[in-house]
Design the sequence.
């Protein structure tokens, strides 16, 4: 009976984390290029009554046998809808891939293509990270020359005295494994593994931004599910508590 | 559990901020040469619940970690400097710039040069060309003075101001409008009154005359309208409202869960 209480508590606990994830998704319904997170549940190995027992008073619920636990919080990296902005320096990814950017804290990946220029002409994200070229350095345009064009393959060119001149090529990269990407906030990802140049299916679209990948309907369904599953688990706790209480009150006192 | 409450609150806060931006855009739908802003959103921090590679209850190492995001925030409000439509006014002192340039005006309160694209210019009592504003007439910089006896004013596309004076059939040049542009106009500080101020982000102005150095040309007899597109703003308004509502739903669920926990046992 006591073990059942733990199992229900675990169920409620995992639903809470799921609610955290859903809340963060909904909060980021407007974040540029945001990729939604999903909670993946797994069942713990069941408590083995025959072979003996890991303690039923575990130090941590997560270590308790049986019940459920969160296996991972997975990010859905599928393409988000594009939103036309007509901004010269708004660039969106069509297909997989990331910009490689550098901040004081190191190198990161991002799909946030709301770019701006530093006063010396360096291309930056609106969040202030330098966009890196395929040679690894920053991309700098001439502050006193004309319009900037960004091609599908990441080639940045600038109108100079009536001609288009290439000033650099934005590095379009893809992680070798998406499992090594870690969200660090500010629309940035830290890649704990390595990258390779993005393939032919990746292209940039100037004048567009990638909208958030949060799908309100899915998240609302998640919200309802998580809320009800949480409730059900709590009801189970209540029920077991009552049952225990009844048992204790009916045991004849010696 | 309270993570959900907090991160939903950040969502509502950021959407409320977005609403402020959209409301200001819509309020300025008729402001001369107004440039609309948009709010960029970004995710905040991620709390690492389980580090990748941590051992789980059955001694296996997790392949990936568990990170829970803690909400959203406004990354920046970005100005959209796309050209506004030109409206013909047929008044010679109504000026519009087609291109990225700005007019330079001197703010006499601060003795600072400010930048504007609102070209509804008038003369003050001394004949100086000033930018019309509700509280103060800021003269153009460098200043241009129209002689008291001038009967007609003409402004060419490169900004040369000429006047016609009685007894003289030829146009007399009295000055030329100087324009500036910035490598990063989005880094300008908006100070109201249709004015922008240089900042460390905008860079120093590139100064030239109309038609030079990619400045664009001056069109006399036209005003640049606001580049606010009402349809786009209204779509943004709807999205903002719904995103706000969605975040509030998540708060409600978190609240209900807390209440369920609080009422789990009555003593």
Sequence:
């Amino acid at each position: 009976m006591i073990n059942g209480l733990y199992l229900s508590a675990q169920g409620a606990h995992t639903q809470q984390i799921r609610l955290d994830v859903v809340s963060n998704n909904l909060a980021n319904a407007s974040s540029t290029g945001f990729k939604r997170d999903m909670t993946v549940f797994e069942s713990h190995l069941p408590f083995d009554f025959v072979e003996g027992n890991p303690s039923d008073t575990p130090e941590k619920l997560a270590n308790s046998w049986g019940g459920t636990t969160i296996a991972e919080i997975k990010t859905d990296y599928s393409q988000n809808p594009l939103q036309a902005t007509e901004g010269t320096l708004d660039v969106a990814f069509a297909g997989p891939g990331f910009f490689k950017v550098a901040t004081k804290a190191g190198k990161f990946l991002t799909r946030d293509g709301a770019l701006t220029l530093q006063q010396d002409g360096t291309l930056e994200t609106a969040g202030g990270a330098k966009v890196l070229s395929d040679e690894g350095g920053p991309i700098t345009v001439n502050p006193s020359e004309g319009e900037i064009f960004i091609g599908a393959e990441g080639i940045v060119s600038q109108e100079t005295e009536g001609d288009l001149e290439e000033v650099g090529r934005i590095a379009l990269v893809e992680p070798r494994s998406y499992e090594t990407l870690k969200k660090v906030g500010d629309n940035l990802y830290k890649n704990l593994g390595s990258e390779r140049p993005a393939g032919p299916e990746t292209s940039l679209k100037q004048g567009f931004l990638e909208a958030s990948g949060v799908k309100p309907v899915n998240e609302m369904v998640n919200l309802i599910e998580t809320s009800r599953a949480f409730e059900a688990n709590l009801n189970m706790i209540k029920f077991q508590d009552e049952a225990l209480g009844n048992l204790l009150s009916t045991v004849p006192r010696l | 559990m309270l993570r959900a409450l907090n991160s939903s609150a950040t969502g509502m806060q950021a959407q409320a901020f977005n609403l402020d931006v959209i409301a200001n855009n819509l309020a300025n739908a008729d402001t001369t040469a107004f440039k609309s802003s948009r709010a960029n959103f970004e995710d905040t921090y991620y709390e690492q619940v389980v580090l990748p590679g941590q051992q789980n209850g059955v001694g296996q190492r997790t392949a990936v970690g568990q990170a829970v995001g803690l909400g959203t925030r406004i990354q920046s409000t970005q100005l959209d400097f796309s050209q506004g439509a030109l409206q013909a006014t047929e008044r010679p002192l109504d000026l519009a710039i087609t291109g990225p340039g700005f007019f330079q005006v001197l703010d006499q309160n601060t003795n600072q040069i400010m930048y504007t694209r609102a070209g509804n210019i008038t003369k003050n009592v001394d004949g100086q060309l000033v930018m019309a504003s509700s509280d103060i007439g800021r003269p153009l910089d460098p200043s241009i003075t129209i002689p008291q006896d001038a009967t007609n004013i003409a402004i060419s596309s490169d900004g040369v101001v000429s006047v016609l004076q009685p007894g003289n059939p030829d146009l007399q040049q009295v000055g030329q409008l100087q324009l500036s542009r910035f490598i990063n106009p989005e880094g300008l500080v908006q100070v109201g009154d249709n004015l922008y101020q240089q900042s460390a982000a905008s860079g120093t102005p590139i100064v030239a005359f109309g038609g030079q150095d990619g400045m664009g040309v001056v069109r006399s007899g036209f005003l640049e309208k606001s580049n606010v597109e009402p349809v786009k703003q209204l779509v943004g308004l709807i999205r903002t409202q719904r995103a706000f509502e969605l975040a509030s739903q998540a708060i409600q669920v978190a609240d209900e869960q807390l209440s369920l926990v609080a009422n789990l046992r009555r003593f």
